[in-house]
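Handout, section B. The chain below has 405 residues.
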Amino acid sequence: MIQARLKDRIQEAKIAAGIITQKAMTGPWTVQIDINNSCNNDCVGCWCHSPLLGELAMDAETKKKFLPYKLVLKLIDDLDDLGVRDIYFTGGGEPFLHPNAVDIMVYVKKKGMRCDMSNNFTMLNEEKMKRLAVAGVDNMNCSIWAGSEEAYLKTHPNKSKGDFSKVEEKFKLFYEVKKRLGKTKPTLNIYNVISSMNYDDFDNMIEFAFRCKVDGVDFTPTDIVPGKTDSLMLTKEQREHLSEKARNIWPKFYDWSARYGHKIIIRNYDQFLRRLSSDDTENGVYDKSIIGTIPCYAGYTFLRILADGSVNSCLKAIRIPIGNIYEKSIKDIWKGNLQEKFRKHTLNYDVKDPYFYNIGNKFQHGVNGCLLCCDNLGLNLAVHGKLGKIPLLAKKMSARLPSNK
């Protein structure tokens, strides 16, 4: 534990030094690895597998893509050498459909890095739960999008009656497995993407989290694919209704806590309310009010590696890859010219810069994609908060930002 904290402090200091000098001194803080693209769910808001996408849905060959076990282990070794502290597993699909998913996660913990992930919680059995808990895997973000069977079936068209109850049983089993083993990890957080199909299930989602004895619950409005998933966009009336519910949830929240004898947190609560109240929310623009008010630090703190080996500088930079791990090592890609170009544009952030018209999912053309929904915003805000405690650096960061009006 002490050694891990020391590594954290060293990495933080090196990243800060890189931002100050505008020259990366170390690897990123966190790396997201999409280990596979296959999925057993068809979430309606998914950019890859939603049945609403029609011809834009991920094709059969792309769905087969996955990173081979030995390549992933080599990648983790290289990331460890770069000083990376967090590995986040996800995919164009369900990570636990990768044949070596648990082995890979266990390996990350043996290297002394934090291990986090997104998944839909349908592929876990008791044996896998035990291995994850014993290995000390840190956290799991479980994409459910519902607090009732009705909402689950609406948002997952390929699911059947009874499937929601099976997910609930798995959550409760995981709680008991950890309790028997005397473990508190992995912590479990339920992730809910909110749309016109499930916005009225908000209360149920929170009670479901209490009932399953998870650690927290997340909410975010759906990020649409123009021309395909527009019907999922919340109307003004739906947003106002949901905002009122969210602001007045606390009496019920504490009643549920007492009833189930359990505590949870609502993660990113303020960010969710901000996104609901944004003037441009009904057009799918959630982060215009904050993007550009601080620098983007993603070029120094983050990388994403896709199931085909492509490397992206941030979660929405899919249209401007900076390399491929089948062709170059991740170390060379991190130090390469394309990543340097990304750092230059993002650290000196200007919302009018044409470079950012290439940010966003592959269907979102003609706009600065950062303004729509920045998936790196949480990390950027955390880094900015820490750097702001260094007076000289805070002044430098402020001076770099253009007006952005």
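Note. The mean pLDDT is 91. Compare this with the example in section A.
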